[in-house]
Amino acid sequence: MRKVLFLFIAAVIAKPTAWAQAPAQPLKLYTGSFGGGFALTGGNTDTKNINLTFDMVRDPKTKNVIKATALYLRGTQSDVLTLDRTAFNVRDEYSLTSRVFLFGQADYLRDQFKQIIFLWSPSGGVGYKLLNTDATLLSIDGGAGGFFEKNPGQDVSRSGSLNAGQRLKYKLSSTATFTQSLSNIWKTSDYGDYLTNFNVGLTSTLVRSLEIKVEFIDSYKRKPANIGVKKNDTAFVTAFVLKF
Description:
This protein is mostly beta strands. It has one domain (about 25-244): Beta Barrel (Porin). It has 1 helix and 12 strands, in the order αββββββββββββ. The protein has one helix at about 1-20; strands spanning about 30-40, 45-60, 65-75, 80-95, 100-110, 115-130, 135-150, 155-170, 175-185, 190-205, 210-220, 230-244. β10 and β11 (about 210-220) form a beta hairpin. The N and C termini lie far apart (about 55 Å).
């Protein structure tokens, strides 16, 4: 009887230690966010501007990571459409080492006021992480692929492409992150015809899963569809972002 009582007391003493250990959280295969912003003015000039953003990362904690981003911008002034742009990128990265990686990606752009009905550029290449720490990720990459562009009243333009990119992500604090990216796509049939995209942004956490993001976007097309189209378009975007 005393032996049974001794074993019971020993088990009770040992249990709290086991109970205190929280169960391991399951790894999240998918992470990302949805975001949107809206601006409205009235009076002498009526303007409406909306932006929608999306990003997703599939990371099974192996060598392969899939990333996707999308952006939609639309604006009107006195009920006249002044902005209508859609862009997205899907990218698959495979790590060879902690710094070197291979990638395959597809870029898409539709911009009514740049007179781009669609622009597709599938490509692949190699990249290198110059910095790869918990706080900072800085990488460069380059590759080759295809370039397919459709403009109003013209046949689809087809060409090979060369591309180069640079990306920076820096955690300013546990609640704030700075991001910056620069990418360029050249047509091999005419290296003077290229598309450059530049982004710089700051994201800050408001509550647990809600963030606010401020971003500047610059899109430059060296040879627009016709001489009356401006080469450079910029946008300043503020959005509330819900993480998942």
